[in-house]
């Protein structure tokens, strides 16, 4: 059923009809379109446009349609309606006849679509928040059993300073916390109802938009009709949250892919999330993580796409805006899927403590400690840095670790070095000294885990 036609003499071209239609992707807004329509029907009673009895008939038919939708949403796709709004209206008219034709009074698809989208986004934000929290909990769980799993920390992909596996986990918890906070922030601006803005200039009927907004769980109604039907900022914001969080997930993937590599050998990924090679029997590939890493690109693409669609678009509604949906739907699904997969990967990870420690011992990652040791003995940091660098060179040439150099050798580089140097450059000592807030000292990491557990209600 077309929602327009009176003004037209000729029919749409078949090609244009297909090109113009959005039902093939906006059908997923069916539930939201029905919920908003029920709220709208109640408003129509208050404005004396329909009677209470008529509203009850409309509402029960809409609820029936809702049940059918929940039963099999894909059934919608067999219709040749232009969009989800036409589809719901057609279903309603099929059920209750011409009374159904009253529902669209005072409403436009322009305020309807953005209302549906906001309701959909709100539901998705809640699901995303749940997944972001669960992923944090999973990291905390692993951190808790790896307080003393020492591994090398990297800069430039070169072994830099020792850290612990728990500390690495907590870095991701921090990133995910920012993702949560960004999403909650989006919710504040998103949860404002555009319904009742009409096509662009408000509705000519006496409608209490604030009451209507509250009835759908919005915090308030928007202030300007022109802005309301033009605004897709919430999609840009949501996709930018998605892009940042997916970037985090891609870095997580890259870290884990490296940890799992034959070269690092710090962890082993479970059979349940890896796949084999058709040719090389020995292979066990980290596909789950490689897919997360690349899905990130697709989400970034959607962000750029919506920005470009909206750029220079005149107020208010333009059909260009129909293109806001596929990227949004796809990105939110992708983000949720990737969070679930990341949880699965982590829950099944096996950490190889011995090889983590061995790698930390091997990479001269305690060279900073020698410099700090000399500073404590009165040497300037720049000079101490140089001495420590020379000692590293010496150790490399002798194929030894710094801990294995004899005291007499230390002394040829600085007379200030005494026997206590050895206690100062153990991995444990490197960690324990970094006690200040945010440092890697196990006691400090322990406190952070306790705080995170409280925040996440883990007992
Ligand atoms: N399918 C349209 C969209 O997604 C719905 C709004 C149509 N409004 C209009 N004036 N044609 O944007």
Automatic annotation (TrEMBL):
GO terms for cellular component: cytosol. CDD domains: Argininosuccinate_lyase. Residues 6-301 form the Fumarate lyase N-terminal domain. Pfam families: ASL_C2, Lyase_1. SUPFAM superfamilies: L-aspartase-like (SSF48557). Pathway: Amino-acid biosynthesis; L-arginine biosynthesis; L-arginine from L-ornithine and carbamoyl phosphate: step 3/3. GO terms for biological process: L-arginine biosynthetic process via ornithine. It is found in: Cytoplasm. It catalyses: 2-(N(omega)-L-arginino)succinate = fumarate + L-arginine. Keywords: Amino-acid biosynthesis, Arginine biosynthesis, Cytoplasm, Lyase. Its EC number is 4.3.2.1. Belongs to the lyase 1 family. Argininosuccinate lyase subfamily. PANTHER family: ARGININOSUCCINATE LYASE. This is Argininosuccinate lyase. It comes from Buchnera aphidicola (Sitobion avenae).
